[in-house]
Design goal:
With 149 residues, the chain is α+β, with helices and mostly antiparallel strands. It is 27% helix and 33% strand. The chain contains 3 helices and 8 strands. Strands 1, 2, 3, 4, 5, 6, 7 and 8 form an 8-stranded mixed β-sheet that branches. Strand 7 and strand 8 form a beta hairpin. It is globular.
């Protein structure tokens, strides 16, 4: 079954979509990664929400921010794919779609992310380059990465 991509503002999300997004993020970032942190951070309201569905279920999500809303450049955050769907390359498709949406919606090429360190090579395969030393965010090693064209 193919994945179907949608991009919506916070106000455009249905309650069911928002619930599925928050549940997916909690399943991965809090439960799977065993990290207690405040996922609901008052940034969802500013973000565009890109999500992929299979049979009506949200299996992938990212938040997209215009320049200045999170970092100096546009940014991608809360990148998540359901554990059961990680063997389908949805993560690569999600990043490709996220970059495309930023270019189309915000008309910019420069993107900053705060990436979990273990995903450095994954993001490098999409054109990101490390721009910081490792730092801890919620006790998880991260690295700042950018696409600057």
């Amino acid at each position: 079954m193919p994945i179907i991509w949608k991009t919506k503002t916070f106000e455009e999300l249905s309650t069911q979509e928002l619930y599925q997004i928050l549940r997916l993020r909690s399943e991965v970032f809090v439960v799977e990664q065993n990290c207690v942190y405040q996922d609901i951070d008052n940034k969802d309201q500013k973000a565009l929400h890109l999500f992929g569905t299979v049979d009506g279920e949200i299996v992938a999500h990212s938040r997209l921010f215009k320049p200045g809303d999170y970092f100096e450049f546009s940014s991608i955050g809360r990148v998540v794919v359901a554990e059961k769907d990680r063997d389908k390359n949805f993560g690569h498709a999600l990043i490709d779609q996220s970059i495309l949406e930023i270019k189309n919606r915000f008309k910019v090429e420069k993107i900053t992310i705060s990436a979990q360190l273990y995903l450095k090579k994954f993001y490098e395969s999409h054109g990101f380059k490390a721009t910081s030393a490792m730092y801890l965010e919620d006790d998880i090693p991260h690295i700042e990465m950018k696409i600057i064209k």
